[in-house]
Each structure stands twice: as C-alpha cells, then as structure tokens.
Design goal:
2 copies of one chain form a homodimer.
Chain A (H helix, E strand, L loop, with lengths): L2 E7 L12 E7 L7 E10 L3 H4 L14 E2 L3 E9 L9 E5 L5 E5 L4 E3 L7 H7 L1 H12 L7 E5 L4 H12 L3 E6 L2 H9 L5 E4 L5 H8 L4 E6 L3 H8 L2 E9 L19 H6 L2 E4 L9 H13 L7 E5 L4 H9 L6 E5 L2
Helix pairs in contact in A: 3-4, 3-9
C-alpha cells in the first residue's frame, strides 16, 4: 500500500516561522468520491502569502494548526470520478503540502501542458497574471513613467519589472543584497536596483529615481513602502500586492505618511488579488506567452526537490533567499 | 492713516499649536501695483489644513515663521488695478490673516454674491465641493451603501453625511462627544453617529455598521482610520481628504492594516484636493444650491468676530470645539 506523505502545520507561529512549526506525517492515499479526482502532486509553488494564511482569514480561510499545510500546486489526475477530467490531465489546485489529494472538480483549474511544465507555476498560474494585472490594470503604468517594484528578485517582482520595461517604463527594483541587485540590472534589464538592506537605502532610492516615482508595485509593505511614499510623484499609483515584511512577525507596524501623503500628492493605493481578473486571463496568458517566445521575458525558477524540503523552502523565501519562483518538486 | 492689523506666525510649532505661536502686528495698508487689487478682508475661513501648512510643503508652500499666517478668505475689492475686477467685487483668495491684502488677479476667484454671504465660505468655496467630489467622484458612493465619515460635525463632514443621505446611502458619522453625535442624528438626519472619544468606540462602530463599511470619507487618519479599515467591506473605497489627528503633534503615527487589509479586501484609498475638480465646479455648485433651496442640505456655521480671535479659532478647531464651518468675521 502506497503512503501519502504530508507536511502538517503543528502550531500557529506567533513570531518568526521555523521548522518546529511543521512535521512530516504519513496518511493513506484518499479515495476520490463521486465528482472528485485523485491527484498526484507534481510541483508545489511557494509564496509569501502562504505565511499570511497562518495569521488568520485573508482572501481564503486561515490555515489551522493540526492540518495539512495549504499550498497551490501543479498536479496530475491519476483517477477521475469527475466529468471533464481524465487521467493524465494537469491541473492547478490547492492540494496542500502532500503527495496525493482528492479534490472536487470545482477546486481544479485544468491547464494545457507547456514546456517546461513548471512554467505553469512560475509564469501562467499565478505570478505572471499577478504581475500583469497589478501593473497594467491596477497601477495603470504607461510608457515613460518610473516604476518601482519591491521584492524585485522574487517571482512576481521579476516579472513586473520586465513587463514594465516591455511597456517603455523606467524600471527600478528593490531587492535584498548587492548580488540580486546586479542580477536585476545585468540579466533582467532593469534600469536600476536598490538594496533595501544597505545602510544608505534612502539615498540609493533617491539616486535611482531622479524623476520621482509614478508607479509602485508593492510586495512588502512596512519601511520600504514608507520610503517609497516620500518619493512618489503627484497622482502616483500604488498597486498593493502583498506585505511580506509584515507576515513573519508578532509585531506588524504601521506605515507613516498614510493618509497624509496620499492627500498631498493625490495618490491612489489599491489592493488586488489575481483571481479578480479571471475574466481577462486569456489576454494576459497570450501576452506572457508571446513575450517569452520573443525572448523579452525571462522566467526565473528556483526548484528544490523533495516534499520534506517544503518547510525550509518557505522559511527561506520569507528571508529572501530565493531568486524567481520557488518551487518544490514532489513527484 | 489706516493700519493693517495682521496675525503673524512667530514660530513653527513642533508639538501642539498654542497662542504663543502667534502675535498681532500692525503694518501699513499695501498699495496695489499694476495687475493687482487691494482687498478688504471680510471673513477668514478656518480649516484643519491650516495647521498642516505649518508642517512643511503640502499642496502649497509651507507657512514660514515670521510671516503673516496664511488662510483662505472672502474679501471685497476696494481698489482695482487689474482688468476684470471692480470695486465692490467679492472674491475668494488666500489673503492671509490680516485686514487688507494686495493680490494679483490670478490669485483671486471672483464669486457671485449669495445670501448669506458666508455661504460662499461654508458651502460654495471649499467645504461643499470638497464633500461633493470626495464622496461622489473619488469614493463613488452609490445608493444602498454604508458610508462612514469622520470629523462628521465639521464643515466638510457634516456636508458629506447629508449628501450621502440625499444619494440614498446608510450614513454613520464619527465625531467627538455625545452632544455632537446627537446633533448629527437629530438635526442632520444621519442614520447613526459614533463617539470616537468613548471607551467603547470600536464596539459602537461595529454596532452602527452591521453591514460593514463600503465607503469611508477620511478627515482624520490615525487610530480612527485604522479602526475603520478593519470594518471595511470587500472592494471598499476610502476618500482621503485630511488627517487632522496627525497635524498637531510632534509624533505622527503609522496606520496598521496598510497595506495588508488593502490587499485582502481589495480596498482603494485615494487622496484628493478640491482644486483637482475645478472643471466640474459648476455642476457641484448647482447641485449644492438646489439641495439647500429644497431644505435637504443644512449649512452649519460657527462664526467668531474679530481678527484677534483667529489663533484661538484655529487652536479650538484642532481640538474639535467647532460645529460646522468655523469662520472669523474680520471687517
């Protein structure tokens, strides 16, 4: 009999997430009921939002202690009792951190296979459309504007910057460490990159944005958001995508300059979730595909192998150790 | 020879504004140059923003120590060297806190006289259009939504709530003290009012907004904004008009929940200034006029008499002692 290895969240972290909050368990492989399919998990995608889910209800229910850790994954149908799904189909679903999951049809998004398959996670399923809609529909960046993106070496940030370049913007990334900053400029074609861990971060940010900032794609919140607010131009727009600086702490802090600077500079700050743009998903996918084919958009992946590495993969992502989309290969 | 009494800002306040920051001086009445008019100041309007101007450059230059305190006023042309302006014309201008001012034509907005004349300050010149555009163009409140407004007993807030009622919204005001709260409900027709100074403010706010909050018109920032963020509904909108809780202090504080709650609830926060909507000013004025004529919109004024009372008028406004538009009659 085949076992289903799972990673459980054993305790809700109060402060920093650590390996002690997880444990590896074995369960039996579930049997799909009518309307369900049995999935074999291929790749699990890691996101800073995974940590936010432990803090309480967000755009989904909170992940509770004692249950399988939640997470979006690419999976293959190995048994189907749901119409519309056949053995061999590849789907995106919140399978959680485990080797097998039985899920109802409505929890699955069927995807056409691409080469490499991991692009479904690193580009098409979440990161690409998030970058695309946040930049173009929420912040409405246009050619000639200065766009700043934080967590710029991450999966979403690295795509935001490249899409902004494709659209003719002046692009500055904010990332942790000189090496990542060099990579953004030398490999991804950003116009500038600023190291938020450097002592002279504010000075660097000012130097990199001589015309101020028109659009800020915010993945981090906190101090970096505060610093950017002071550099924003009149009528600037801030697409609020995430707040990773505030997820892995017991003491989230407030942002000064809100709402004062919003009034003075007539700024717009707007939160969004990629699911809100489902209706336009095909347009985004077509653009992303064509840009990759034309060599204008590089997709960076950071793949670890083995279900057991999932806890450390997330812990490391929260401290900024990844470059591009962090993925754990499970099967 | 007639003297021109003036109130100077003698020192930029670091913490709370007090009478010691002002002094009364006498100057000579200026002579208008070519292209200028000589104005006799009739009424000075007080605004929380007057205090913000002392903190540094906002949407206007900072008010500097040693100069006449700035302020918007209703004034009459008593000598004209500018084409388009005749003796007897009434204008709105930043004359500053003094009895006479010589200003160029481009600094003046000529206004048609209304009865009472003070409505030009309390309704037409600033407060009315600010309430109107912030609620209807920035926050885009529509019938059936729950609208919350802070500093609700102030000049802008009291109009915001009444306009929202006219538009069919469920309206809750936030104000300081039980008496103001009763006035909002009994006299202005708000559906509810919450006392932010009460120990059970959060509980009161929850009880007054059983369906959550769709639109928040924010005049105060700080703790009240933070409390409201937690009650906002999905896709809610916050019109950022001011941050009076943060002006009169040496230690402005950050707002928690930004940007986290903006992402989770897909909220939009947007700052604005009434001048941005100049192109639609006539539409707003016509609506405001018709609502007053129909008895649907009450204009509350709080008039003090005598230039020398201006410092205390502003100090008192910052601590919330006014109800409706605070005006000082100068001439």
């Amino acid at each position: 009999m085949v076992a289903n290895r799972q990673i459980h969240l054993v305790e809700t972290p109060k402060g920093k997430l650590g390996p002690e909050h997880f444990h590896l368990a074995e369960a039996t492989v579930p049997a799909p009921k009518a309307g369900e399919v049995l999935l074999k998990v291929l790749y699990v995608g890691l996101d800073a939002a995974n940590r936010a889910w432990m803090q309480g209800a967000t755009y989904r229910n909170a992940v509770e202690a004692g249950t399988v850790m939640a997470g979006g994954a690419l999976a293959e149908v190995i048994e189907s009792k749901a119409s519309g799904f056949a053995v061999g189909d590849v789907v995106f679903a919140d399978t959680g951190w485990q080797e097998y999951a039985a899920l109802p049809a409505e929890a699955l998004t069927k995807l056409a296979r691409v080469e490499p398959l991991t692009h479904l996670l690193s580009l098409y399923a979440v990161s690409g459309p998030t970058a695309y809609f946040g930049l173009l529909k929420v912040a409405r960046a246009v050619a000639g504007e200065t766009v700043v993106v934080s967590a710029a070496a991450g999966s979403v940030g690295s795509l935001v910057g490249q899409i902004a370049k494709i659209k003719g913007c002046h692009v500055v990334g904010i990332a942790g460490g000189a090496e990542k900053c060099r990579w953004l400029v030398d490999e991804l074609g950003f116009d500038g990159a600023v190291d938020y861990k450097a002592g002279d971060f504010h000075k660097q940010l000012k130097a990199a944005t001589p015309k101020g900032i028109d659009v800020y794609f915010d993945n981090v919140g906190g101090d970096v958001l505060e610093a950017v607010l002071f550099r924003m131009n009149m009528k600037g727009r801030i697409a609020c995508c995430g707040a990773v600086s505030q997820y892995d702490t017991a003491t989230p802090r407030g942002v000064r300059g809100v709402p004062g600077l919003l009034v003075v500079k007539r700024l717009r700050m707007e939160g969004f979730i990629v699911m809100d743009f489902q209706a336009d998903a095909a347009v985004a996918a077509a653009d992303l595909k064509s840009w990759v084919a034309a060599g204008k958009l590089k997709v960076q992946e950071d793949v670890l192998v083995g279900l057991e590495h999932l806890p450390q993969a997330l812990i490391g992502l929260l401290s900024g150790e990844n470059r591009g989309k962090r993925i754990v290969k499970v099967a």
